[in-house]
Amino acid sequence: MPTGPNDAARALKYGAKGIGLCRTERMFNAVERLPVVIEMIVAEDQAQRQAALDKLLPMQRADFKGLFEVMSPLPVTIRLLDPPIHEFLPTERQLQSDLEQLSHLRRSVLGMEVLAGSMILLHDPSAAKSEADSMRHIVDLELVEQAIEKKTLMLEKGACAYRGEPDARPSWRTPWHHLS
C-alpha cells in the first residue's frame, strides 16, 4: 500500500502496475507532519483547527501531485476518508506514563530552581549568578508545563476517541474534502 511518491517509486521498481489503495492517513505519520495532525486533533476551536488544516493541505497536495507524476499513466486509487483520530495519538497507557515522567521532571526542575537560587549561599557570590543562570537554562519549567498541557489534552481527546464519544471527532473537514 504505497502512501506517497517515494513509496510509489519503490513499488514501481518492484514491478507495480498501479496503486490499488493509497491510505491517505498514512501520509501524515511522518515525523514532521504528525505534530501538525495532533495540533488539528487537539485544537480548542474551529480557528485553531483550520490553521492546522491550512498547514496540512499543501503537504497533501504535494503528495498527490508527486504520486500521480510517479505513477503516470498507471492507475492510482486514493481513499479519501477522515483519518481515525486514535491512530495519530499515543495510547492512553503511553500518555499516562509520559505525564507521570513529566510530573517527576517538573518536580526536579523546581528543585533545580531552588538549588540555583541557593548558589549564592554555596559559592563565591561573583560566580554564583552565572552558575545559577546556567542551571536554569538546562531545563525550562515553562517547556515542561507546555508538554504536560499538550499531553493532557491528547489524553482527554484520545480517551474520548477510544470510547467512541461523538465529541472526540470534532467537526472538521479533511484537507482533501474538496476532492470528494
> What's the total number of strands?
2
Alpha-beta content class: mainly alpha
Distance between the terminal alpha carbons, to the nearest Å? 21 Å
Largest sheet: 2 strands, parallel
How many domains make up the coordinates? Answer: 2
Query: What are the secondary-structure elements, in order, as H or E?
Result: HEHHEHHH
Structural shape: elongated
Mean pLDDT: 81
Which stretches are low in confidence, meaning pLDDT under 50 for 5 or more residues running? 165-180
* Strand ordering within the main sheet: 1-2
Approximate strand percentage: 5-15%
Number of helices: 6
Helix content: 55-70%
Spatial extent as radius of gyration: 23 Å
Account of the 3D structure:
Pfam families: PEP-utilizers_C (PF02896). This protein has a two-stranded parallel sheet. The protein is mainly alpha-helical. It has helices at 5-13, 34-41, 46-71, 92-122, 125-136, 141-163, and strands spanning 19-23, 76-79. It folds into two domains: 5-89 and 170-179, no CATH class; 92-163. Residues 165-180 have low confidence and may be disordered. The chain contains six helices and two strands, in the order H-E-H-H-E-H-H-H.
Protein traits:
61% helix, mainly alpha, two-stranded parallel ribbon, 2 domains, 180 residues
Topology:
Blueprint: H1 5-13, E1 19-23, H2 34-41, H3 46-71, E2 76-79, H4 92-122, H5 125-136, H6 141-163
Parallel strand pairs: 1-2
Protein name: Pyruvate, phosphate dikinase
Domain PEP-utilising enzyme C-terminal: 5-92
Pfam family, one: PEP-utilizers_C
